[in-house]
Design goal:
Elements (H helix, E strand, L loop, with lengths): L3 H8 L2 H17 L8 E2 L1 H8 L3 H14 L2 E4 L3 E4 L4 H25 L2 H16 L13 H15 L5 H20 L10 H13 L3 H30 L14
Antiparallel strand pairs: 1-3, 2-3
Length: 249
């Protein structure tokens, strides 16, 4: 039988600390709180997150293995960059794997899955995407319902590793969305897109649902890509023009 002291030791073990700080760092990277390319200094992060340097290095190594951080030889770690070209590859990967998972989910889904899809779509439709009418301010409740809707669409595919891969791609794509700041998607009815995907899925139209899902992901990807490129242009250093002899300002 374990003693209270032994339980305390297990709770404070390096493995537990590493897991906790890994989750916090991962969340801050995915939310854009740790910007792309920023140096992840172990001593500074240790103070910020209130953990030892050994579990912190373990957490950073795990993030590097996921591609969310980059190990620099003899120089520690940096947050992974946010290259618009890489984002396009990410969106294409989502279209391919989520389309496959959706087809399987439609084929295997039962009445409980149908009810879950319909309920998730209804809840999403009831929530405003923005918290303000005159400008776009992200609604966290909408974001949560949006993730739930896309997750339940694929939930019946009965392939946990595939679902885990889909979730990882979605999280990476969401990081780009956060970095692109709030995007209002002008001249686009996102709610109608979700409704059409749900209707096709519930009608067991696998080809139609997969096509609509792919179009939906690609449309979002294009808006985010443009926003990322604009962001990159704004943050790029301005080159000083060479002075010409005899020239005046």
């Amino acid at each position: 039988m374990s003693t209270p002291a032994a339980d305390t030791d297990r709770q404070a073990s390096p493995e537990t600390q590493a897991t906790a700080v890994y989750r916090r760092l991962r969340f801050d990277i995915l939310e854009g709180r740790l910007a792309p390319g920023v140096r992840l200094k172990v001593q500074q992060l240790s103070a910020t997150y209130g953990t030892g340097q050994a579990p912190l290095r373990e957490a950073l190594s795990q993030l590097a293995a996921e591609g969310l951080a980059r190990r620099i030889e003899q120089r520690g770690f940096r947050v992974a960059s946010a290259d618009p070209a890489c984002f396009l590859g990410l969106i294409r990967s989502r279209c391919l794997v989520e389309g496959l998972a959706l087809r399987e989910s439609i084929q295997r889904g039962d009445s409980a899955w149908e009810d879950a899809v319909a309920a998730a779509e209804r809840r999403l439709q009831r929530l405003p995407r923005s918290l303000e009418a005159d400008r776009f301010v992200t609604n966290p409740a909408w974001e949560s319902a949006h993730r739930a809707f896309h997750a339940v669409l694929l939930a019946a595919c009965d392939a946990p590793p595939l679902l885990a891969f889909c979730e990882r791609l979605r999280e990476e794509a969401d990081r780009y969305r956060m970095l692109a700041n709030a995007i209002a998607y002008p001249a686009r009815d996102v709610g109608a897109e979700h409704a059409a995907i749900a209707e096709a899925a519930l009608d067991r139209d696998a080809d139609g649902a997969a096509r609509l899902l792919s179009q939906h992901l690609a449309s979002t990807g294009e808006f985010v890509r443009l926003a990322l490129e604009q962001r990159a242009d704004k943050t790029a250093p301005t080159r000083r023009r060479p002075q010409v002899a005899g020239a005046t300002n």
